[in-house]
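Quick one, tokens below. Sequence please?
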């Protein structure tokens, strides 16, 4: 409904002004839309912009009379306020299942996120990648895009060579019940200790790196077994975080199918290529001082070479490719984009994010100093259960555990996604689980309240007649949900959805505080129940798009 009304206003402005750009935007606190086109016309017509705005209002009143849009002028500013017909249309749309779903687009999107090295569990630093990536994937599907979500598996890296050496030489037994990713981390940490103490082991690591690139069957098997063991544990964590992938792409596949060799041959032919034992590319024309190394002096390729082949494959199979990368990958990410441009390929769009941490400090898998995502989830789950048990002691143990699970995962995801990606953040246990403030439980509770009201009310007739200030504000906010989805799909800023969901919960709570629902009578009661139903449905769709359970009871 918002898009249709916006277009009606825009078309009317274009008709009465003759301008292609009518300078139409958000109206702020005083209107739904506003235009400053009178300023532009004043220069052309040599007239006072306030007079032009007043003249245009008279014409616009006629054009928009049937659309339920009222026009006001404040000096040179033309404000548009959406009325009853708009509100009625919003409510009708918001009652439908899947509200906010935009029309299907004939555009295939590849979104890659997480892609952590398979040498240990995901830690707190990784999961911001997962949450940003998964939220964007959900937004893209909601926006009508055919979206595949990839995890690019580094199964040829030096870390995996070290792990494979550790499995062959250290004899570390897997603990009973230990997840595969944690076991791999134990081996990796100890192998690094040995490597630092005995530099001669490096020769064996180098030998393994050469053999894996040559496709040696035995070494391929050793690497793949270690990777799969770790990846199984990572997949379990991602499942708990509601952040699944539908494709796992292995970098070794791009070596075996010769894609990487073909890319390197084309790079060798570029005038920017440098071959002096190593193969690198001069990207100084893009502002990079360091050369982009693609092949070592011993003939083995580096990760970047396989990554180029993977991204060429993406370009051939998708209309848009989006990568989610940490701020520490800015250099290599931009070097990748520049090299693909030199090759005549379309580079990926990259969302860079700063890091999330805990008060406990920084993390390193190599040194064994990390707080795994599993540990974080377990701790938040424990704290969520304590909160639920305190609030709802009458519930069964099964119900308490179920609510605590949804609250815990929601708390982690929301606390991460609510901060814009260019800002670093520290996960705050207390704020994340605060049922009274701006957190996932706060939004989940608003949805649960809507469900409870509807359950108590029983049957009612749908009436579309919001009247009070709080009712109108809430319905207009509901109407913005499809617009928010559309904007995020264009701007790649998923924290905007978190802000929207929180503001929607705020307005719903304000509506409920000042407007009796169950105790109201007649059509007023039916109208308010209709608003509750629309708000509950929108909260559910927003939470689901954030990857957070929209639970009915808390």
């Amino acid at each position: 409904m918002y898009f249709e009304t916006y277009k009606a206003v825009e078309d009317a402005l274009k008709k009465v002004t003759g301008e292609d750009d009518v300078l139409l935007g958000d109206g702020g606190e005083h209107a739904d839309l506003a235009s400053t086109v009178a300023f532009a016309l004043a220069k052309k017509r040599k007239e006072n912009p306030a007079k032009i705005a007043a003249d245009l209002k008279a014409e616009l009143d006629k054009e928009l009379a049937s659309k339920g849009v009222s026009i006001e002028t404040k000096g040179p500013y033309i404000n548009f306020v959406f009325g009853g017909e708009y509100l009625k249309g919003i409510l009708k749309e918001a009652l439908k299942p899947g509200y906010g779903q935009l029309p299907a687009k004939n555009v295939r999107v590849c979104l890659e996120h997480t892609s952590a090295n398979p040498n240990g569990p995901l830690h707190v630093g990784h999961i911001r990648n997962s949450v940003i990536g998964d939220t964007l994937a959900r937004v893209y599907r909601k926006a009508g895009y055919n979206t595949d979500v990839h995890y690019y598996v580094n199964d040829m890296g030096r870390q995996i060579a070290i792990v494979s050496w550790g499995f062959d030489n250290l004899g570390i037994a897997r603990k009973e019940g230990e997840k595969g990713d944690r076991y791999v981390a134990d081996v990796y940490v100890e192998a690094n200790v040995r490597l630092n103490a005995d530099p001669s082991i490096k020769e064996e690591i180098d030998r393994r790196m050469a053999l894996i690139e040559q496709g040696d069957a035995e070494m391929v098997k050793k690497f793949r077994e270690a990777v799969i063991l770790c990846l199984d544990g990572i997949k379990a964590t991602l499942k708990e975080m509601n952040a699944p992938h539908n494709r796992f792409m292995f970098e070794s596949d791009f070596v075996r199918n010769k894609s990487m060799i073909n890319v390197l041959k084309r790079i060798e032919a570029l005038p920017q290529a440098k071959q002096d034992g190593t193969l690198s590319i001069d990207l100084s024309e893009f502002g990079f001082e360091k050369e982009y190394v693609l092949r070592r002096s011993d003939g083995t390729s580096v990760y970047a070479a396989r990554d180029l082949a993977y991204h060429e494959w993406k370009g051939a199979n998708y209309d848009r490719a989006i990568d989610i990368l940490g701020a520490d990958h800015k250099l290599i990410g931009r070097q990748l984009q520049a090299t693909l441009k030199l090759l005549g390929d379309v580079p990926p769009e990259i969302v860079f994010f700063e890091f999330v941490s805990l008060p406990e400090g920084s993390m390193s898998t190599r040194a064994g100093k990390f707080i795994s995502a599993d540990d974080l989830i377990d701790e938040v789950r424990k704290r969520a259960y304590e909160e639920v048990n305190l609030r709802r002691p009458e519930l069964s143990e099964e119900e308490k555990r179920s609510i605590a699970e949804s609250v815990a995962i929601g708390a982690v995801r929301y606390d991460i996604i609510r901060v814009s990606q260019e800002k670093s953040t520290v996960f705050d246990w207390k704020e994340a689980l605060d049922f009274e403030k701006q957190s996932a439980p706060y939004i989940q509770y608003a949805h649960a309240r809507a469900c409870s009201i509807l359950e108590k009310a029983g049957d009612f007739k749908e009436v579309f007649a919001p009247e009070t200030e709080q009712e109108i504000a809430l319905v207009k906010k509901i109407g913005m949900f499809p617009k928010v989805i559309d904007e995020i799909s264009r701007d790649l800023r998923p924290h905007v959805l978190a802000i929207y969901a929180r503001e929607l919960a705020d307005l719903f709570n304000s509506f409920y505080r000042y407007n009796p629902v169950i105790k109201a009578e007649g059509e007023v009661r039916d109208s308010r129940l209709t608003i509750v139903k629309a708000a509950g449905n929108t909260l559910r769709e927003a939470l689901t798009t954030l990857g957070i359970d929209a639970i009915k009871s808390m």
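The chain has three domains: 2-82, 113-357, 373-545. Residues 113-357 form a domain with the Rossmann fold fold (CATH 3.40.50.620).
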